[in-house]
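Hello again,

I reread your note about wanting to compare the complex against the isolated chains. To keep things tidy I'm splitting this into two emails, and this first one only covers the full assembly. Below are the input lines as submitted, including protein chains and any nucleic acid or small-molecule components. They are followed by the predicted structure of everything together. The single-chain runs will come separately.
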Amino acid sequence: MSDLVRVDNLHKRYRLNKENVHALRGVSLTVRQGEFVAIMGRSGSGKTTLLHLIGGLDLPDSGSITVAGLDIARMSDRQRTLFRRRRVGIVFQAYNLLPTLTAFENVMLPLMVDGQALPEIESRAHELLSLVHLSDREAHQPSALSGGEQQRVAIARSLLNRPDLLLADEPTGNLDPAAAAEIWQLLRNLANEKQTTIVMVTHEAAAAANADRVLVLREGSLVGEIESQGSRDAALVASRYAELAR
Ligand SMILES: Nc1ncnc2c1ncn2[C@@H]1O[C@H](COP(=O)(O)OP(=O)(O)O)[C@@H](O)[C@H]1O
Ligand SMILES: [Mg+2]
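Full-complex prediction:
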């Protein structure tokens, strides 16, 4: 498998009230095509910052990021906007669905923005809602869906443009264990069956244990790697993580 994501010596600082926060301190990593990687670390370790840089939502101070051979830091703003829209799917802890639209309309939204032909968008949206087991909820507005269902709509929406890369930031942070387990199963199936490349950040061993590989971030540096191989062995990941993140 070839590398889809290459991150080299990434640094990111934030300036806040004259304080300098060094959020990423020389992070390097690769993610192979079709791989499901979790990035695990405590609150404040730099997980969201790293995910945003990989997705082109923000720019690093130094270092390089290439996704599918495209160098994000060298893109114009316009190119980076198109990159985000066409190459990357992103799922957040908050589902970010539009409350007045149905599940189906929420899924269709990104392609309507991109001006693609309607029948094609519609069949793709039906297909994706079926993939996330929500065919019978297409006409529901978000307020009539459970948290887990809303997140599954958000995942379907993120996949509409057939992204090269799916990024997820604490996707199950607001969900009960049963709903979280469904989301993990869904992500695992996407990697296994659709060869979707996934980078998920989390502070939970039970979430990370679904990934092929877990990278551990501590105070802005990667301090180690756990080969979880989709084992779902949360106890193993938790104990290795406790050693690495100490
Ligand atoms: N926009 C920002 N301005 C100032 N500091 C920030 C900003 N975003 C994140 N930080 C700081 O950078 C560090 C890493 O944050 P973040 O990447 O959000 O960590 P995590 O997602 O692991 O909780 C933290 O110390 C956080 O307070
Ligand atoms: Mg975060």
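For quick reference: DSSP finds eight helices and ten strands in the chain.

B.
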